[in-house]
Each structure stands twice: as structure tokens, then as C-alpha cells.
Amino acid sequence: MKNQRIPLHLLVAVLCGLLPLCSKFAAGQRYEADWKSLDARPTPAWFLDAKFGIFIHWGIYSVPAWGQERAYSEWYWRHTFNDDGSLKDDACGEFHRANYGDDFPYPAFAPLFKCEMFDPSEWADVFARSGAKYVVLTSKHHDGFCLWQSKEANKTWGMPWNSVDTGPRRDLLGDLTGAIRARGLKMGFYYSLYEWFNPLWRFDRKRYVNEHMWPQFKDVVTRYEPSLIFSDGEWDMTDKEWRAPELLAWLFNESPCKDDVVINDRWGKGVRHKHGGYYTTEYGAGLQTGGHPWEENRGIGHSFGYNRNEPLSNYKTTRELVLMLVDLVSRGGNLLLDVGPTGDGRIPMIMQSRLIEIGEWLTVNGEAIYGTRPWNENCQWSAGERPKQEFGQHMVAYNVLDNVGKPADGKAVIETFFTSTPDVLYAIMPAWPGRELVLKNVTVKPGSAVTMLGIEDAMPHRLAGADIVVDLSGVTPDMLPCHWAYTLKVPLERVIPPPKADEAPQEKTEPATVEQTLEKILIDRLGDLFRKK
Questions:
Q1: Sheet harboring 436-439: ordered strands across?
Q2: Each residue of 50-102: pLDDT tens digit?
């Protein structure tokens, strides 16, 4: 029998009906409650491209806003009070006793957390101007106080323990979420699994997980549909005791944000740097490479929450923050930089200033940051002995300024950091190199121009063996487009490998007709559909 093709109008009609069904199956990938399945979920691309986010630690600990000079002020309750509610006999206890008295328990700060100066649109404007692409707010910290109306919090604590029912009487998480998304940024939240003094946590942890944490987590996720969840406070129990894999299977399969949400690695004792959408480091140097998505999180000062006791010397300069961002991105990581608002709802001016200045640098150089990936080498060193850098999860000594500047005493320094896209290499210079810069082992695209971001005119360059030499002598100080670091844009020659000798040349074929193309699509989609079933 002669082959007969399906009529074109019928093909189109069938495809129009099948494509939504096929898309549903494709998007309906289900994940099991085990790490092998959960880790197979790709980290959403938006996170890999975003590079820079803002962390916010804000709660009733922002009322006393105090800790020792190099302490986390958001740990005020734990650092100041014993388990029986008495004050500790140390600097924290003495501060509380002197300013609030012996009979002033931590929950008494809740009505004083009024947030009367809080303007979510103003915050969103500062964050947008900083160049950050996502924002992460503490929905609740280890004290359990929630920034949205949580019935679980009120029930298990036996008192109003959220920002709608006491204090500001306002849905702080909801108000900021709306303002952030109105500026086109991604919005996520931090969520502490444990709570220091929650009665259920202290006396029946299984009930705490089942009756408090699980329903509360599902409530806040369902209400606000976060693009990122920064879990924390996981270290006292295993992931199985937290029932974390089950909870994440719900998040990826059933929640309203299942396709967009990104998760970290803090889901149980021993899980960090083993499982999760991205790995975390805290007040460290990040990770050495970008083999798995990762993010360094830290404050501008030494505390996440606002600490009135921090000296100016604790705060990073804008130059250090910019170079830190560049260094982390060059190794494949993100930077989540924290601000600690005050109890009345203001972002301290020194923090605003740092963010706005980072944003000014990113306005010129963002092309070399957003959407980039690591180059063959993350940086180029000068001659000399290279300093050692340790890497770890928490509190690792790291000062990027130690690695830049002019070489001295036989010590090497970083001449340029590298980021890249498929066709472009970005060389970010942390200091002005002088009249020229030699980029080693870089193949520039023939006939292309090397430019500096923020300057229209091309930079003359010449080949020198496997290197290129960029002439910067024509750049005068008044021409510099920004402070702190300068970016060269180098178009790359894409080398396409020749076909292997044993590969047979492909036969030339006539282009397919519309009917043939649609028929093939229909057959492919039907095959996909039956395979998924």
C-alpha cells in the first residue's frame, strides 16, 4: 500500500492538543523523599546567573541590638539567658541587667519591636540600586518569633509570637515580599528549623517537628512562594529526624513554588556540603571551585543582626566588598551580603552606603558578573610565592585585600580575576597595572577589539606568543569609569575541533517539508508521552 501522510490541518490540531499535555508531563517530574532523587533536581538557572543577593536579619533581637564586638547579636537570647530564664554572669548578662533589669525576660522585647519607620518600598529601592538580584529575609530566627502571622507560633509558645499579633502588628514578610518583587528581584526567606526555647522543642522534639515545624514551614511556603529557602538551625538532629527529605519532596512536587525555588544544604546534622541545591559557607572564603553551586554568606560587619556595639573597624570597606564579590564569582560562587535593620525599621546608613557603592560599580561592570561562569583559571598571579588559603564551612580566615596590590618581599599578588561567557573573557583588574597588562595563555578572536567596560574606545593590543599585551597607556585618570576594579572585555576565538579521521561525512539531505517536520514532532511527543506513563 502506498504511504499516505497525515493531512497538515490534522497534524496541527493534534499537536495543539498534545503539547500542553506533554508539557505537563515534562514539568511533572516527581522527586522521591531521598537525597539521590532530590539531588538530581537541577538548581534553577536564575540562581546561577544572579551572583549577588541581600541577606536581612531582622527580629525582636533588633530591639536590644547588642552583642560583644565579634558576636552575632541575633543570638541575644541564647547568649544572655540560661535555660532556666536567669541572666548569665557574663558581659551579655551584665548589659541586660544594667539596661533592662533582672525581671525583663526576652519575650518582653516583642511589644517594643514596633518597626514604625519601616518602608518596604524604600528598602526595595536600596536593594535594587545595590545591583543585587535576590533578597532573603529571616522569616524567623532561632528565637522562633515569626515575621508573618503564624498560628503554630502562637499555639506552641502559648502567647502572641509573630509580628501581626504583637509588636508592629504587621505582616513584615508579606509587605517586603511585595515590594521586592515589584522591583523585579527574586524574593526568598531564611527559616530556622529549631527554636532554642520553644516548649515542644525542649521537651518533645518529635512532636515539635510534626506539630509545629512541618505545618509552619508549609504555611509560610504556600503563602509567599519563595524563590529561595535558606534553612538553618539544623545541626542538633539528623535529616531523617527532621523528616527533611519528605518535606523537600513536598516542596519540589506539590508546593506553589516547586519550579522556581532554590534550597541550600542545611537540612540535618552532617548534610552540609553533601546535599542540597547549593552549598553554604559563612564568614569564610567560599569554595575553591564551582563544581557544585555555592554561596558565601556574611554581614558587612561581623554580626548578621544589627549590633550597636560594633566598632567601625568591623565594617568592610566598599573596595573589599567589591573585590570579595569578584573573587567569589570568579570561582563559581554567589555572595549573600547581610544587612541588619534597626528595631524601628531602618537600614543603618553605613550599610546603605556600602550597598549603593557596590551598585555603582556593578552598573559599569555587571556584564562581567551576572550570568558568567568560571574561566580556565579564576585569576592570574604575578611571579612570587602565592599565599595559602584555607576553605571550610564556617569562620575561615579570609581577606581578599591580602592578595592584591603591588608585589613585595617575593610575594605574589593577583593581577586580574577572570570570569567568562562562551565568547568573552572578562579580566577584572583589582589594581591599576600601569601602562600595559599581559594576559597569559589567552587566545583573542582575530580582528576583534579589546575594550574596557565603561570606556567606548578600544584598547590597543598585540600578540606575544601565547599571550596578549593590552596597551593601557592611553587611559588617563579622568577616563576611569569606576573605582576599585576595572574590567577588560576580551572576545575569544572559539576553537571548533576538526572531525575525527574515522568519522564518515554526513550525507546531504533535502530540507524537510512543513508536513514532515510536524509529523516527526507528533511521533516524538507521542513517544515521550507513553514513555513517561
A1: 436-439, 467-471, 461-464
A2: 999 999 999 999 999 999 999 999 999 999 999 999 999 999 999 999 999 99
